[in-house]
Automatic annotation (TrEMBL):
Keyword Transferase among UniProt keywords: yes
Annotated protein name in UniProt: PLP-dependent aminotransferase
Entries under Pfam families matching the protein: Aminotran_1_2
UniProt family annotation: Belongs to the class-I pyridoxal-phosphate-dependent aminotransferase family. Alanine aminotransferase subfamily.
Keywords from the UniProt entry: Aminotransferase, Pyridoxal phosphate, Transferase
Membrane-crossing segments per the record: none
A GO CC annotation given for this chain: peroxisome
SUPFAM superfamilies named among the record's database cross-references: PLP-dependent transferases
Catalytic activity, reaction form: glycine + 2-oxoglutarate = glyoxylate + L-glutamate; glyoxylate + L-alanine = glycine + pyruvate
Record's keyword annotation contains Chloroplast: no
GO biological process: L-alanine catabolic process; photorespiration
Length: 480
């Protein structure tokens, strides 16, 4: 008789989950690393792991909160700036026993108030702290919302393809159906509302109730920034089709061009006025893991709800209560992100300088990487306008596709494995994010150190051009 944790008795939803960012490529890279090979992990947006330095001010504040006895040391002012000391005392006063005590299941009320004030400054419209839940990173918030909405396999969620695999994995885990809508690579990964309509109509004809639509802005893995016009069209679409808009806006600080700055879905919705501003149900997500903070390991995030009925908010609170409390250090990092040092504060100049240095370097790296890919044979790449990734299309020769299939591999997985073995560069195949039939990509972060980037791109180019040389039919297969 089988036992409860034998593989054949496990929840089928768990077995259906795929998560390419830490999939076959990552596992092979980890093996090679154990064998002593130098691996450049560009498979996941993990800034500090690739050398980004933490910002000083938030680390000083959290250090004092973690070790409050330092505040009683007469020499504390010699080591920590006065504004960091004051802020640590402020955050400790919001807790019911320091960082080791549970908070409210929605997060500390004082920090939710700081988040609401940040949202009001950003968007120009008041925000209600009671409709803001703090979470262990944005991913936990996304999973909480999907779990609340999905009743079974007949409930569908519209997800952009290529997509961040959190969505496909979480939808599978909740037992729902992913309804894909394809972004247009030739239009800089733009949206096509006709394609959206077709996706919804097809899902409904299969008996699926489409409940929500996900947008990732700036895009992951595709790196595009949505314009106001795009967002207005999406909001009108959600209003017509009675869809909840799940706005993944975790990369809002990561913008590398000036034509399309980040604008929140909430601001665009409010600017559109009634009736639509009172009609569309919207949940927006943000985190301390991205931007120039890059504090992935701290697990601080939030979601804010707009136009969600009070009874539903109560149910979401009930489910949040099962986990008792989001981690308190992560909440404090979030408070510091939404309420950073201000002009006149002792730490202000240093904070601005550190932030600016990181963002300017990311902007340069976005250009180095995109230009590098576009200089390679059979590789084309849209410019990374925002987020932390490049998503080049690899135009694989028919012979390479055939050899990959004979080896039992998806063609872009085969290419990425060969790249890893030859160069130590660990990427994620485009098939892990979804892509159109017969089209192949890879995703890489733009996070390796700026000084290492030219050598990494040279190494990629050398591998790629040799790979294409090996597999191209010299009688005429060439770059399209």
């Amino acid at each position: 008789m089988s036992k409860g944790l034998d593989h054949e008795t496990l929840n089928e939803n768990v077995k259906n989950v795929q998560y390419a960012v830490r999939g076959e490529l990552y596992l092979r890279a980890s093996e090679l690393q154990k064998e002593g090979k130098k691996i450049i992990f560009t498979n996941v947006g993990n800034p500090h792991a690739l050398g980004q330095k933490p910002l000083s001010f938030p680390r000083q504040v959290v250090a004092l909160c973690q070790a409050p006895f330092l505040l009683d040391d007469p020499n504390v002012g010699l080591v920590f700036p006065a504004d960091a000391i004051a802020r640590a005392k402020h955050y400790l006063s919001l807790t019911s026993g320091g960082l080791g005590a549970y908070s409210d299941s929605r997060g500390l009320p004082g920090i939710r108030k700081e988040v609401a004030e940040f949202i009001e400054r950003r968007d120009g419209y008041p925000s209600d702290p009671e409709l803001i839940f703090l979470t262990d990173g944005a991913s936990k918030g996304v999973m909480q919302m999907l779990n609340t909405m999905i009743r079974g396999e007949k409930d569908g969620i519209l997800v952009p393809v290529p997509q961040y695999p959190l969505y496909s994995a979480a939808i599978a885990l909740c037992g729902g159906s992913l309804v894909p809508y394809y972004l247009e690579e030739s239009a800089n990964w733009g949206l096509d509302v006709n394609n959206l309509r077709q996706s919804v109509a097809q899902a409904r004809s299969n008996g699926i109730t489409v409940k929500a639509m996900v947008i990732i802005n700036p895009g992951n893995p595709t790196g595009q920034c949505l314009s106001i016009e795009d967002l207005q069209e999406l909001l009108r679409f959600c209003s017509r089709e009675k869809l909840v808009l799940l706005a993944d806006e975790v990369y809002q600080q990561n913008v590398y061009q000036d034509e399309r700055p980040f604008i929140s879905s909430r601001k665009v919705l409010m600017d559109m006025g009634t009736p639509i501003s009172k009609d569309v149900q919207l949940v927006s997500f943000h985190t301390v893991s991205k931007g120039y903070w890059g504090e992935c390991g701290q697990r601080g995030g939030y979601f804010e709800m707009t136009n969600i009925p009070a009874e539903s908010v109560d149910e979401i609170y009930k489910v949040a209560s099962i986990s008792l409390s989001p981690n308190v250090p992560g909440q404090i990092f979030l408070g510091l992100m939404v309420n950073p040092p201000k002009p006149g504060d002792i730490s202000y100049q240093k904070f601005v300088q550190e932030s600016k240095t990181i963002l300017e370097s990311l902007r340069k790296r976005a250009h180095i990487m995109t230009n590098g890919f576009n200089s390679c044979r059979n590789v084309v790449c849209n410019f990374t306008e925002g987020a932390m990734y490049s998503f080049p299309q690899i135009r694989l020769p028919p012979k390479a596709i055939e050899v990959a299939k004979m080896a039992g591999k998806v063609p872009d997985v085969y290419y990425c494995l060969k790249l890893l073995e030859a160069t130590g560069i660990s990427t994620v195949p485009g098939s892990g994010f979804g892509q159109k039939e017969g089209v192949f990509h890879l995703r890489t972060t733009i996070l390796p150190a700026e000084e290492d980037m030219p050598a990494i791109m040279d190494s990629f180019k050398k591998f790629n051009d040799a790979f294409m040389e090996q597999y191209e039919d010299q009688r005429g297969y060439s770059r399209m």
